[in-house]
Design goal:
The chain has 301 residues and is of the alpha/beta class. It is 37% helix and 24% strand. The chain is globular.
């Protein structure tokens, strides 16, 4: 029988599509993972991964093994986690896959008190905007907005239940270029644009009294969603008009560093959700986090 550690190493590398990323995920070294996969291939007498200097890809045999092995290892982890129920406090690792905006705006109010309440839980947060499959990425749960929720997953509210997209610019920029009175006026302004990791551009949508208007402005600066802080700093410096989560801009709006633009047109949307697989048994760290979020929502923490 193959060693359980070697099987786990194979699944980690396969999910991460590389030894270096797998090492970051697992806390092991890339060389030890490579040796574990090599031992497994020798034991089974078949190649599981095709390796190049730049990438790792599953062979057909490797793909078949991963399909059967990943759920089985999940059951092993769940079985071992049952012991957590006999501990005074739950322990283990909780891995969350979240958008950059959630890491910036939602988790700071939750993570410190959660870790203080559960000191034996280690929390790992992977912040990205590519919206990967959280299970395939080796995570226990994720944070998503309702349009990104997958079927057959449980979703519970986390963070603010209503948010707005806000547009703003520095007073100096607006004094120099004028203050827009209608979304179409943005076509004559310098706008700081954002782009998803997929390469898709973010159109600017506004809404007022049931009227929805979408504009595609231009400007001197384009940033990916992971570089939102740069866009905010540029707006404060007078580069142009920015449109992003209101909570991201609120400190600068309150201080006067930024001035609201087209505020009656700011569009509302529902807040984020913590979502995870709808299975009967949850790992103890995830169960503790779900209970903590529920207690926060009910005002018990």
């Amino acid at each position: 029988m193959a060693d359980l550690g070697d099987l786990t190493a194979f699944v980690t590398v396969a999910r991460s599509s590389g030894f270096r990323d797998a090492a970051r995920t697992s806390g092991s070294s890339a060389s030890s993972l490579s040796e574990a996969v090599r031992r497994l291939e020798t034991k089974l007498g078949v190649r599981l991964l095709n390796r190049t200097t730049r990438s790792v890809a599953l062979t057909e045999a490797g793909a078949r093994l991963l399909d059967r092995l990943a759920p089985a290892l999940g059951e092993v982890e769940a079985a071992l986690d049952v012991v957590n129920g006999f501990r005074e406090r739950p322990a283990g690792t909780l891995r969350l896959n979240v958008p950059v905006s959630a890491a910036r705006l939602v988790l700071p109010r939750i993570v410190p008190p959660f870790l203080a309440a559960y000191p034996e839980i280690h929390l790992e947060v992977i912040a990205e905007d590519s919206f990967v499959d959280v299970l395939a990425a080796g995570c226990d749960a994720g944070i998503r907005y309702d349009e990104r929720l997958e079927q057959e997953m449980i979703a519970i509210p986390i963070g603010p239940r209503e948010q707005r997209y806000a547009a703003a610019a520095s007073p100096a920029y607006l004094d120099r270029r004028g203050r827009p009175e209608h979304p179409r006026d943005l076509l004559n302004h310098d706008c700081i644009r954002g782009r998803f990791s997929s390469g898709a551009m973010m159109l600017w949508e506004f809404e007022r009294d049931g009227e929805v208007m979408t504009v595609d402005p231009s400007g001197p600066l384009l940033v990916s969603t992971g570089a939102a802080d740069l866009a905010v700093d540029a707006a404060i410096a007078g580069t142009g008009i920015i449109k992003i989560f209101e909570d991201w801009l609120r400190p600068y709006l309150d201080s006067g560093a930024l001035e609201p633009v087209l505020e009656p047109w700011w569009q509302k949307f529902s807040g984020p959700f913590l979502y995870y697989p709808g299975r009967r048994y949850l790992p103890a760290p995830l169960r503790a986090f779900v209970d903590f979020i529920g207690a926060q929502r009910d005002g018990k923490t």
